[in-house]
Amino acid sequence: MKVLIVDDEDKITNVLASYFDRNGDTTYIAYTGETAIQLVDQVPLDMVILDLMLPDMNGEDICQYVKSNYDIPVIMLTAKISIESKVRGFEIGADDYVVKPFHPKEVLVRAERLLPESKKKQVIKFGELELHKIEKQLFLNQQSVQLTQHEYNILLLLAENPKKIFSRDDIIQKLFGYDAELNPRIIDQHIKNIRKKTERDYIQTVFGLGYKMNDQVKKNEI
Asked: Could you tell me if 187 and 170 are in contact, meaning their C-beta atoms sit under 8 angstroms apart?
């Protein structure tokens, strides 16, 4: 899994990264809230391990951002915790808490227990659309729709994060890498092709911002 570790203490990030790396996972480290949000937007993460106290931002604000835009489990790290803080954290979407000091193995085990919940959906449904992740196939009204690999990946990215507005650059970074040198307008063509093949505006254009899934189409179909 791809894990983002957010903490301003080198000892904590290094030891956690070491455990996850030895477990075969890929780790990313952020020492500030700003860097954490950038990585969340750029990398298709499976897990976020997040310290409550950061030099530039409250960990709760970062958790709220993640949960408002993505379906990614969040484990909160904290040196001291009250029941009020825990309740507040769970209300904004935290999936688990770990109190410092802790053994890194505990964090790894907790992350692995949360991961199946984020991965168990092998079929993503949106209205009459069904994206089968294992087969990488789209079905509309139970009929197969042939998409190119790029078209499928764009639709899957949007469908897995239906609340999030993705700019053209966001989509390119997520699917092709941060250093990809592509004309952003190619995303428009892929979106146009998806709309033609699905025969509905499942993807909404948010003028000046980018693209997201069209909630209105979904509501009308259900």
From this structure: no
Q: Give yes or no for a contact between 47 and 3, defined as CB atoms under 8 angstroms apart.
A: yes
6 Rama class: left (phi>0) / alpha (psi -120 to 50) / beta? beta
Query: How many domains is the chain built from?
Result: 2
To 10 degrees, the CA torsion angle through 130, 136, 142, 144? 140
Query: What pTM was estimated for this model as a whole?
Result: 0.59
- pLDDT of 159-189, one tens digit each? 988 888 999 998 998 888 766 677 888 999 9
Tell me, yes or no, whether 107 and 174 share the same domain.
no
Last residue of a domain, one of 64, 84, 119: 119
Q: 């078209």: which residue's tokens?
A: 151
Residues 160 and 212 in one domain: yes
